[in-house]
């Protein structure tokens, strides 16, 4: 074993960084998505099927179908008679869905026989990339390249019809937890109960008579008195119930006064025993079908099946529900007495859970399975009574279309509309952003809130203290989604649902736990704490500290799941143990009671030598995961110097892990104004770079890539840890005013730098066309190369085509040229095909519509069943032009104001001219001191020939940079004397000149500039079309019209609104002033006395629509001007 004397104390922070590096080597960015989906495939889908495992028939009591097992296979596809493994790249190229078959084993009856069938296909499950069922699972780098996949791609998304879709994490309130909230000046206590078999919701509030009533969707609107429910569950007296609620409270008198009206109502209603209470509740329920049953039986079934459904009923006893309801009433009363401490905070992250892909797909699958079972039942009811030669065989009717379509449609559209579970959400799944590698990673960590975005409430949008370490404080959008859409922090993990059977067993073995069944109500005044495990009451804890230490020791020793949370709440007098899904957890190093942490130097050395990894440290009890609830019971030190012996329980691993993926690439972010870091999080996703290592093999509909990407001279530790792909370059920047074209954040570019390749990018686009085979199999779409006369005016239209009728790669293509020359049969119906001996074809090819010239990059031909798909990818090389957008990593965005020749720009004594000139007025108001630090550190790094560190709260200090400058005979500030390129004289002041990292963003003039004279019009109104993509007109709106009116420019108004838009000449009768058609007035019965008038066609359309309504507008004229 390594000895501690070989370890140098000044290497501790670097050693901690090795721990974080090991974390990213063992944990993927999308691990929370993958774990959730794997948990659903292994456990969730089986739980759903076991809860809906039997189908019966109303017409035959002996007929049934029972699911014995369910499993999801490996992704595969059948091409004709052959079946082969399906890869994600094949799905992208062929527009397929990356899915695997769902097999079930069933037991069913056929006549009098009971049969069993295995491996019956009931649907296809979309497979998440990198999950355990994916072909990429556990593959090494070489195998990824063999499968044409990028080894840096994190997975965590689906491929539906060739499009990459990611299911965003959905923020929801915790289930099976009691909350006290204040709604419209009224305090309510509620719990949402979620169980596999049943879901319900329970409320407590005061009625007009100050009596506590229980409300549920099966209860009448006025609710049920709480004491009636107490007695129906337990049969105890009012005194015993009241004593349990008031136990060990210093404010018993106040609580009793609030309970008194409810007790009096119970006495007045003559609810004295368990039977009378059940009858009282049963009579409250209006069930027309249950009129023949005894009210007590109805009340019993109601409590059993609809009240607190997440709490199991053992031996037909409601005692667990009774204690749970008593605790709930106590919470409700205390919220009225002490609202400041007892009312829960909706925005506290300990009160929230995240729904991930596994949970959300589980909702869709459960709904689809219930509909599938209903479909099978209806088929059985229809065919069983019919007399047939052979018996009804249900397996012939069990198809896979319903479940497959439900799953694919939900992920493809993003609409989770499930009436059964009262779920109606849109935008749950979205197209995975591939603008850059960073945009892809950022989208996989995005959290979507269900809070309405149009509301102006600031609470859910604010940066809460509970966000520390689990939500990025900088990465959130601007506008209406600000604060509602969030991103996970670097080392935050989302828990999956763990088995809690071992937790229950350990609690039952503890001497500090009294089960609720053994609890003596006469001892209710003792200082006992309720014990809840995943919202289910277990009993009472007698010694709080020893019990929590007992469970935490078991967690650290690996006896219970590592994401288990154990926390106490003194105001609730309760201990909560949670192992449910959706909790945000974060790792911390454990600190011993003597003030020393458990991470020793030898552990760090083992990590360096790859003898241990991060997961090993968790298993050894050195590091543990805490959620936000347990964090409230802990005392966290930021570093070793902050540890307080006897108080500190944990120490932070690295403080920079409080940031998210996008914010972590910003150098020195702690020196910037906060909004600037937020702007960079948005613009970093729009920066051009490499989207993946296999981008040349992909067929994305839109792809931006920079020609010469570079790594920055100032990097951060997280960038190197999660294999960030560069998206920018290191130009030499001079900070000075120059020419007046650099106002308002505009920059000046060096033309020579552009000629040498600076910021040059490629834009790849994709177009596709299908060659269909028609239903009668007699004809299909054709490809052909036209034989044209050399002098034909259409020759240039087919210039790019090869002999097979498809554009040739590396051929330059212009507007209106043909990329794929397809011909389709000119038929209306199949019958017409049989009637004609020779089929006529018409041109129906793929035409290049862009006004900018492109180059054909590649052509992909694939088949899907009997149809053939041709995809043509073409590219454009874009040099920077005036108006293109650039940005630094500090949220300072700007467009190119001018491009000057190198001879006009200033240069240093070494002959270095700046690639970019930036106006210094961009610093004072933005307060981006971090950019100044990056400038200094970048120049020092270039002089020394190294990479400097710009990690938050740490990194290369300015003192180190000044020393490097001094050693290389430079001014410590990085400034230099420059010579004017225009006059040849020294500039009067020193100017900073040096390298800094700049990003070229996707916003380019070539994609936005638009103008037209004549062009297409809409058929209905004959006005110009709208939008650049349709070559539309430039709209003069209401505000522009008001300006023209204010200036009295009446002729300009007429030109804009009529002459350049939809001018139309009509004839109007002088006698009746109506519009006439065909030079004949039907009202006057005359062909004479007409005016020819020019009016907007839209006005003429309005007049005709009024005619159709029986309104005949007549137009008068001033004949002096005619």
From TrEMBL:
Its EC number is 2.7.7.6. GO terms for cellular component: DNA-directed RNA polymerase complex. GO terms for biological process: DNA-templated transcription. Residues 662-1030 form the DNA-directed RNA polymerase subunit 2 hybrid-binding domain. Residues 30-404 form the RNA polymerase beta subunit protrusion domain. Residues 175-355, 430-494, 532-592, 614-644, 1032-1115 form the RNA polymerase Rpb2 domain. Residues 1014-1024 have a biased composition (Polar residues). GO terms for molecular function: DNA binding; DNA-directed RNA polymerase activity; metal ion binding; ribonucleoside binding. It is an enzyme of class 2 (transferase). Keywords: DNA-directed RNA polymerase, Metal-binding, Nucleotidyltransferase, Transcription, Transferase, Zinc. It catalyses: RNA(n) + a ribonucleoside 5'-triphosphate = RNA(n+1) + diphosphate. Residues 1014-1033 are annotated as: Disordered. The keyword Nucleotidyltransferase applies. DNA-dependent RNA polymerase catalyzes the transcription of DNA into RNA using the four ribonucleoside triphosphates as substrates. Belongs to the RNA polymerase beta chain family. This is DNA-directed RNA polymerase subunit beta. The lineage of its organism: Eukaryota, Metazoa, Ecdysozoa, Arthropoda, Chelicerata.
